Amino acid sequence: MNSIYKQKILILDFGSQYTQLIARRVRETKVYCEIHPFNMDIEKIKAFSPKGVILSGGPSSIYDEDAPMAEQGVLDLGVPVLGICYGMQFLIHTLGGVVARAVDREYGNATIIIENNKDLFHGFGIGTEETVWMSHGDRIDRVPEGFEVLAGSKNSPVSAMVDPARRHFGVQFHPEVAHTPEGTKILRNFLFRVCHCEPSWTMTSFVRRTIQNLRETVGDGRVICGLSGGVDSSVTAVLLHRAIGSKLSCILVDNGLLRKGEAAEVMEIFRGYMGMDLHLVDASQHFLDHLKDVTDPEKKRKIIGREFITIFEKKAEELGKAKFLAQGTLYPDVIESVSFKGPDATIKSHHNVGGLPKVMKLELIEPLRELFKDEVREVGIELDLPKELVMRQPFPGPGLAVRILGELTDERLEILRSADVIVEEEIKKAGLYEKVWQSFAVLLPVKTVGVMGDERTYENVIAVRVVDSLDAMTADWSRVPYEVLGAISNRIINSVNGVNRVVYDISSKPPSTIEWE
Q1: So which residues are the catalytic ones?
Q2: Pick from 336, 330, 432: which is nearest to 374 by CA?
Q3: Are 8-194 and 413-504 in the same CATH fold?
Q4: CATH number of 413-504, picked from 3.30.70.250, 3.10.310.40, 2.40.50.100, 3.30.300.10
């Protein structure tokens, strides 16, 4: 990723579940950072020109046969380095210290005592106790030559260390997690006191620089953008519209799998409020015909992706020659597409527009690929987008197809749309819509016995899914008040024809996923 930002922190990922959280904490201080695999080539690291390097934690032991090792040259760049947990052990092992296997793994809250309050612990009192979060299976027997102990605990006498000459730091705990109450203060000390970063990463500066870059990149060319009405594609479209105006054409493909009234709402907002060149393609019947009798979720996705390309390409050709295709790729998409173990161990391939660049031979423009979801919302606010659009919950690319388990029919789509509206209305009424990550209904492929009035019924089941998350990489089921769930259930059963039972999904990600298919 060729960043235009001079104030940059490089995070090398050794596989920690918290790596993305490190990035979020750094970004929150208004310092730009990027995550790259631990084995990033040293020449690329030099070209990146970071103000400092953070080595993440990871699940490995430094003594594992396939333990991840960064290039040693990363320690010779002349910039500050902070090793966290496994990253600290990498520092010790590489620089001649001794890491030993612990008898017992240390996991959970621990208390450290500050022994040196310079630099990393500036503002902390010497001898004070701080609560931190530990998660490691090895212990430190000896620090490398030149290192001093900054803090220690009962189980980890070397909980933090520094080589003041080389400005290399290590912490055995995780300052990025909420379980380390003063962790952000420690990270801020590293960023501002040690690396001398400036808080220049703001969405105002991002918008200004991105618009300038888009103008230079597009030049006299034309851009086609797929617009779904979600916050990512909407912000992408508005940024481009601000930058290149009439050189942008947006296409909204109604695949028949959108929420109730969604296509009309998007057209009204963007044609009226934004004045964009926006084209609606009603392909509802086309998609339903191709999805007839298909129940396998992977087949659904592939058919939807393939037919979307067909429809989109045809419309794009009608609009005239275009050089670029814009899509709303976010930073988590990029991270998930490059595993810390390299391209052969990818977590999840990023497939924002299902292969359009290859098929259409267009150059790809992804103006949001540096941003997390919350930063995208900030950009939307900066661009004066309507709040209801900016705060809209994520919606899957395949639409309601992955929320109807089994065959897709007009009847089943109508049932789900009607139930989904009720979920959204009740969640908003309870003041929860902007507090949770997603809330939606799922139509299950089973029927159950019920009683309505004096008659026996045999009808469909709706599952309600509400989750809390920061970025969708992990999620926990939301503890929605019973009275809200009760209101949702009562309304669905009483007003949605064909449903006689509502259940609540209490699964977290992992091991489950947010969507059911």
Answers
A1: 85, 174, 176
A2: 330
A3: no
A4: 3.30.300.10
**Segment (H or E) for 110:** strand 98-114
**SS3 readout for 205-250:** HHHHHHHHHHHHHHCCCCEEEECCCCHHHHHHHHHHHHHHHHHEEE
Residue 443 vs residues 172, 406, 427, 480, 501: alpha-carbon distances, Å: 46, 9, 18, 20, 11
Backbone angles phi, psi at 131, to 5 degrees: -85, 130
- Tell me the pTM: 0.79
- 3-class DSSP assignment, residue 101: strand
Using alpha carbons, list the distances in angstroms from residue 302 to 119, 341, 392: 53, 27, 26
CATH superfamily label, 8-194: Class I glutamine amidotransferase (GATase) domain (3.40.50.880)
Q: Name the pairing type of β-strands 160-163 and 148-153.
A: antiparallel
Supply the Cα-derived Rg of the chain in whole angstroms.
26
CB 121 within 8 A of CB 189: yes
CB 352 within 8 A of CB 308: no
Query: What are the mean pLDDT values of the chain's consecutive 10-residue runs (517 residues total)?
Result: 70 89 92 93 94 93 86 93 94 88 70 92 94 79 91 87 96 92 96 95 92 94 89 93 93 92 88 83 94 90 88 85 87 66 36 45 86 91 90 89 93 96 97 96 92 78 94 86 97 95 94 90
pLDDT confidence of residue 240: 95
Distance CA 62, CA 516 (A): 38
Separation CA 450–CA 304 (nearest Å):
35
Write the burial class of residue 1 (CB in 10 Å: 0-12 exposed, 13-18 middle, 19+ buried). exposed
User: Any idea which fold 203-390 has?
Assistant: Rossmann fold (3.40.50)
Tokens linked to 194: 């040690």
Q: What is the pLDDT of residue 350?
A: 37
What's 314-338 look like in SS3? HHHHHCCCCCEEECCCCHHHHHHHC
Tokens encoding 488: 């949702």
